[in-house]
From TrEMBL:
Cross-referenced Pfam families: SBP_bac_3
Protein name: Extracellular solute-binding protein family 3
Alphabetical keyword list: Signal, Transport
InterPro entries listed in its UniProt record: Bact_solute-bind_prot3, Solute-binding_3/MltF_N
GO cellular component annotations of the record: extracellular region; outer membrane-bounded periplasmic space
């Protein structure tokens, strides 16, 4: 009797859990949909078009992953403060959401190597401010996004006062209201804002980018098959120059990292 019960447990309980943990890609294919967490407030990496659809560089990368898997794509908007929580709770299969590569994050998610992107930190400033060097910001308030990993380091290194808000829209509004001298954020985000007529007329990015940091995609810990699939996909993006082409498509200057990885990988045989 005991042997029968053990056999039933092994067949009915243990086997499904083992399959779920080991076959992430197969489970996604069986479901027919890949669910990806992306930004929706970060032009050009993830933003809403006039119809309300989430578009941008990272949604395009997600679409390519879904195409390679042969499944439909579902995008879930995330912000910096909830993206890892969404992944851990199983609300998304993976993240492509402007997430910088930090040791504390690698402890709670499975990072995809190599990092697919890398970006600097910079400041959106009014042209009338005439700021040309980081040292000119000492003692002045800088709007920022809550949770950005570099806020503390920027404050300590350049002597600025960080005034943090949730998301990116609130600090931009505060900047326009004159509550701070500039908005410190990822350089590519600032570049994206300056593509809009709303910002390009009166604002600029005159400073040299600092604190270059790679960006990682992530899956849940233990999702080995999806991890391997995404690692191979990332290498293929670099080999074909797909990310460089996406940067040009959305009107930003290709970074040294994306250009360098394309040059390094384009002749690779595997």
């Amino acid at each position: 009797m005991r042997r029968s019960m053990i056999a039933l447990l092994l067949a009915g309980v243990l086997a499904p859990f083992a399959a779920q943990a080991a076959d992430g890609v197969d489970a996604i294919k069986q479901r027919g949909t890949l669910i990806v967490g992306v930004k929706a407030d970060y032009k050009p990496f993830g933003f809403r078009d006039p119809s309300g659809a989430v578009v941008g560089i990272e949604p395009d990368l997600a679409a390519d992953v879904a195409k390679r898997l042969g499944v439909k794509l579902e995008l879930v908007p995330v912000v910096s403060s909830n993206r890892i929580e969404f992944l851990q709770q199983g609300k998304v299969d993976m993240l492509i959401a402007t997430m910088s590569d930090k040791p504390e994050r690698r402890k709670v998610v499975q990072a995809i190597d190599p990092p697919y992107y890398s970006d600097f930190v910079n400041v959106l400033l009014p042209k009338k401010a005439g700021v040309k060097d980081w040292s000119e910001l000492k003692g002045k308030p800088l709007c920022a996004t809550s949770g950005a990993w570099y806020n503390k380091e920027i404050a300590q290194k350049y002597g600025v006062e960080i005034v943090a808000f949730d998301g990116s829209e609130k600090p931009l509004f505060a900047l326009k209201q004159g509550n701070c001298v500039g908005y410190v954020y990822d350089q590519t985000f600032v570049q994206g804002k300056l593509l809009d007529a709303e910002w390009s007329g009166d604002y600029e990015m005159p400073l040299k980018g600092v604190l270059d940091a790679p960006w990682i995609m992530a899956v849940a810990l233990g999702n080995d098959t999806l991890q391997k699939f995404l690692e191979d996909t990332t290498k293929d993006w670099m080999k074909t120059g797909f990310i460089v082409a996406e940067e040009k498509k959305y009107g930003i200057e290709p970074t040294d990292y994306s250009k360098g990885m394309h040059e390094k990988m384009k002749s690779a045989t595997n």
